[in-house]
Amino acid sequence: MISIFVIFIIILYIVRRPRIGENEPPLVPYKIPILGHTFSYLFNAKKFIKECKEQYGECFSIYVFGHVMTVVSRNSLSEVFRYPDNFDITSGLKEHLPLYLLFSYNGGMSNEGNKFHIKSVRKQISGKLDLNISVVQKYLSKGMEKWIGDCKHPKTVYDAWNMINNIIAIPIANVLVGEEAASHEDLVNSFGKFAFDLGPLLFIPPLLSFIHIKLHELFITLPLRFGWNPVSHHREVTMKRLRPVIEKRLKERNELGDNYKPYHDLLEYYMDQPNFDYTKPDNLPYHVENLLVIVFSSITTTSRAAADALYDLAGRPELLNELYEEALRIDRECNGSLTVADVKRMVKLDSFVKESLRHNGIITSLPHYVVKDYTFSSGLTVPKGRKLRLYFDDMLKAKESYGEDAEEFKPFRFLKANSPATLVERSYIVFGGGKHACPGRFFAVNEVKLFLHKLILKYKVSTQSGKIEDKIYFGPYSFPSKSGIVFENRV
């Protein structure tokens, strides 16, 4: 038995031994056969990738999970955004977040599906900020009352990300499906938990990929073969609450004709699509899964940004006081009813949010596959089929763009730079870049600012430790701290 295992390991080593062609980005040497750099990448990615870049330049390759992966930064990273036809982000994201394996009625991340999601977000969510802003602030206030409440006596909250996710889910649910459907607590709870329920399954390290990538897919889909699918419950809850709303709206359309006043939510947009016919057995589930893709990509990412910002704020009491002065002045001028123009005037808060996003801690992100052999301006060539990851942390801390103090957290760094948090720039790649830049960033940033604005007006916040808390890291990803944050009423 031992001899068979040894033979298997030898064969695996020979088969999986990386082969680097001439003029490719240099392969960083490794000491552990078969495993390569996997442990360093999983458990010390920040230090490991930084040292690789310092020693091998802005474009280098590492060997993780049985495959060669090229990490690109600075000029090479910018070229990935500039020439998107040469790099396939859809395949990269499908491998990283294989929603298509979990969705029964909708692949979730096909090229056409992605185009539809981008169009719907751009048109219905970010494109209707003026209409959505009143809905967001109304339900943010209700969410804060529910999940934070009265803090006459100091209240300590641990894992603030989870709490903020529950708050953020309420206004987003109202924007997506309207106030009638979102009045149901089970629907809002489902939206809030959706990404967290899928997360453990989608973020399992692909250890079986050392043998073959398909084995990892087989492993994470095993529960589906026994009838368990985390999407199913959320799909059923959503259909249950949307069906009567759809029927009511269709009845209104028939009775009112040209006098029908369309709702401004995403559900109405789906109902206007030529392929919408909820009476067909698979049609409503298909559109609901479209909706769940938006839920997955919006609520958790927005709440994560808000949680990061809250921890950044709570550890800096002098900053909290300065932002409170701005918030109080704007609140008085608009009598507590904010417009998009009022949110835009929160220049100090905007600069702080942008700096918090710049320090999000993500090391590498946005996997791409090379469509055909591509030679960067540096002269290095990446072959067709090679997986790339973008070195976000390096780009966001570039001294050429942010000065010698680029590593420092300076909340008002952008105050006089005419550079709002939504602006995609060469070095500010939090929301991606080029034509694939996140279309929901306008809505997300405004919601984060509104959340912080209302929180600053209502509460004093501090970290329980009295220190600036560090993020939690797993592989190249960072997550908000779970340390305690103390809330106390201002008055």
UniProtKB/TrEMBL annotation:
Entry keyword Lipoprotein: no
Classification via PROSITE patterns: CYTOCHROME_P450
InterPro entries (alphabetical): Cyt_P450, Cyt_P450_CS, Cyt_P450_E_grp-IV, Cyt_P450_sf
Superkingdom: Eukaryota
A Pfam cross-reference name: p450
Location within or outside the cell: Membrane
One of the record's GO cellular component terms: membrane
Cofactor(s), names only, from the UniProt record: heme
Keyword Isomerase in annotation: no
Keywords carried by this UniProt record: Heme, Iron, Membrane, Metal-binding, Monooxygenase, Oxidoreductase, Signal, Transmembrane, Transmembrane helix
Segments passing through the bilayer: none
SUPFAM superfamilies, sorted: Cytochrome P450
Any GO MF annotation of the entry: iron ion binding
Chief site of localization: membrane
Signal peptide region: 1-21
Binding site for heme: C438
Family annotation (PANTHER family): CYTOCHROME P450 (PTHR46206), P450, PUTATIVE (EUROFUNG)-RELATED (PTHR46206:SF5)
Family assignment from sequence similarity: Belongs to the cytochrome P450 family.
The protein's name: Cytochrome P450
Protein source organism: Rhizophagus clarus
